[in-house]
Amino acid sequence: MAKRIDVSGLTAYYGSHKAIEDISMTVEPRSVTAFIGPSGCGKSTFLRTLNRMHEVTPGGRVEGKVLLDDEDLYGAGIDPVSVRREVGMVFQRPNPFPTMSIFDNVAAGLRLNGKYRKNELNDIVEKSLKGANLWNEVKDRLNKPGSGLSGGQQQRLCIARAIAVEPNVLLMDEPCSALDPISTLAIEDLIGELKERFTIVIVTHNMQQAARVSDRTAFFNLSAVGQPGRLIEIDDTERIFSNPSVQATEDYISGRFG
Amino acid sequence: MSTAAVTDKRPSTLRGASLPKWSPWAIAGGSIVLAVAIGLIGGLHSKVEWGLIAAVLFLLGTYGVATMVEGRRQAKDRIATSLVWVAFLLAVIPLVSLIWVTVSRGVKVLNVYFLTHSMGVVADSEPGGGIYHAIIGSLEQVGLATVIGAPIGILTAIYLVEYGRGKLAKAVTFFVDVMTGIPSIVAGLFILSLMLIFQMQPFGFAGSLALAILMMPVVVRSTEEMLKLVPNELREASLALGVPKWRTILKVVLPTSIGGITTGVMLAIARIAGETAPVLLLVFGNPFINNNPFEGAQASLPLFIFQQYQQSAGASAAYDRAWAASLTLIAFVMILNLVARGIARWKAPKTGR
Amino acid sequence: MDISTKTTDAPPPAPQPSLAEQKRNSRGATRPGDRIFLGLSRGSGILLLVIMAAIAVFLTYRASLAISKDHGNFLTTFEWNTNLTPPVFGIAVLAFGTIVSSVIAMVIAVPIAVAIALFLTHYAPRRLSGPIAYVIDLLAAVPSIVYGLWGALILVPHMTGLFGWLNDYLGWTGIFSWDSGAPRSMLTVGILLAIMILPIITNVSREVFRQVPQMHEEAALALGATRWEVVRMAVLPFGRSGVISASMLGLGRALGETMAVATVLSPDYVIHASLLNPGGGTFAQNIASKFGEATEQGRDALIASGLVLFVITLLVNGAARMIIARRKEYSGANA
Quick one: which H or E segment has residue A230? Predict the structure, then answer.
């Protein structure tokens, strides 16, 4: 069920401002790809073009192609709602629905997509919470509000919510930036397990994290403030962190950056 | 639509069939034609019925077509969108009608003569006369109410924001909320009870007192909001220079927030200028010009509108005057609103959104 | 405490403790300027409390004069003959009419206002929503007497079609039967009140919906929710307490509205089962209509009915406050 992503010539705008320009890359199924780069280089914007969330922002529009196993997400007749259903997303700040219980949060996506019997739903929720390494911590309080959990638990709840609908791809936008180190470690372990089943793309500011969790790493940069962000290079993570082919990447990784 | 978990290699899960952009218009057009046909054949006379039939047909049509082509979820989404639009259009009708009627009927007799003459020698059923006496009454009553209500409201807000702690401030905050909910007629009855005790006849200032009571909580609330926007650093900077607290408030805090406070006061004035009920009980109304708000019955614009409607037994001349007075009153209130908003925008703290 | 509760329920005014402290400890009370200024502002606050107390005391005093002379039962008598000796009057019809007209107004206005608020925040093209919101702001400022005039001269004649239609199809229920007479009835009053409270409920709800954190809406979108599903999952649950308090504000206005009811309703002192037949009355309308002919005794009776209206509006406002406070507590405890 994990799918390959093929991006070619992708440019994204906010109104008349060009945020990212001419990005092409391939993301292999069942792998973790990390996006790194300085603030404002457009990595989050790029991530959001992969499930058509970018166009939710007023003025947001996209040119170019994003193929999900040969089907263009921006092709004619493509329903963005179905795209988001198949390309799940986890956000920077944990965002469980504040008025829903833990159970309902995980079941939210399933309930949108059709009728499930009670025990069917129970099974999927349990499986998803186990998949997010959260089951043991919350199995006794599934009916309590999700907002009562700690930040790290909330983020894993959001991951459980995202994987419950069995997406093909899981996008993560700095999923650990609001968390403490122990919660971060738990999520990183989880990413390692999830890549068995999903194609994962993760944006991170933390280069050690990129090195720890990803198979491939893409470095984004912008030539000046106000200029669009560009993809500088994408390669195996090991190679990016040991022997990158572009000088700018090495400067950024070694901290010699601007 | 997909209901089960996604299985491997299903080619077109992304490609939801969707209706073309023009389809809502097409369905709407079809519904209207069909509704008119039904109306003509069924001999329904009321245009309201035609409209209702068209609306129902449109909703059913949208739901049916969307369910067939796009699936239930999309159909629900379309219905929700339609309902939200319908609600909006439904609400626009009376509001547009109100403004249109007031303007179109109001301009009939609204001229300089109307604004500069009273009803003193004109019977309610006759044409002629004007609202000069009512304008004088309104200006005096609202002016006096503002002179009383605004300072008390602003000072109370200063107390709550700059000094307020403990039980007294809590009580004041609570009762300001309570006071906001007092119906205007109850404020009128309160002053009336005092007038009954002191055996007083109606006069303009009694109305001002009731209006001031209605004005105070509004001014307190808006001023409080404005004072809270003043950054603490400003106060501390001034206090650190050895400026006494009261001078800090007068010279630093109030000037910083004066735009917002003015806006709040003007909106409160606009609100009480349209109040009729307390004026009816306390000022009573008077067709003659009475420049003295402290003695004898006076008129006021909203009261004039009510009495022209109520006491004229359907004379069209009286209705014309009522509409013209309404237009004058609305113009006054709208100008106050627009100026107040203008000041708010002009003086807005730079941090505002 | 999670952000959601912070934004829906406006937190109680936060005085600057550090400054107040500073004031008390240092130079504050010693300087005459400070003493006078503090005295003035605290005095104003106390004056507000005194006014509130005075309203309660004087209304109760005059009301007790009236009720002690009443030869009917103040709560259950239908008629309102205050100028007789002895007077016979009661508020049964008025209480019934006030509640019925306000309930009609709420039933019509709340869903439409919520829909318009959603329209402005989530559906309308951005270029449209700004000006429309502005116009609605201004409509909230239209004086109630103008709504009353419009209601009496424009709305009433336009109701005959609807009334005939309702009578034809729903007349058998009794509630919607229409025998005769101009449509100056509780239903017309309720519709007019609904139009009047629509702007305020819309404005407050719109503010609440606008404060729904982007991240909750994005969470729903990212799960593959349609726009309506985003509204149902993220927007409505978040905005519920705000909508409730907006509705209560509107209800308070509807309960106490005087002039619009006085111009539209053709009153009598009978409780009608039908909402379409003219008649009935409300507290505020009755005060305005009966004031002109009332003697001192009659005015006291009107004050007594006003006191009841005062108490009812206090209860409604109190209930609104409690609902908001409880929701705050609920979500605060989960944070």
Answer: strand A229-236
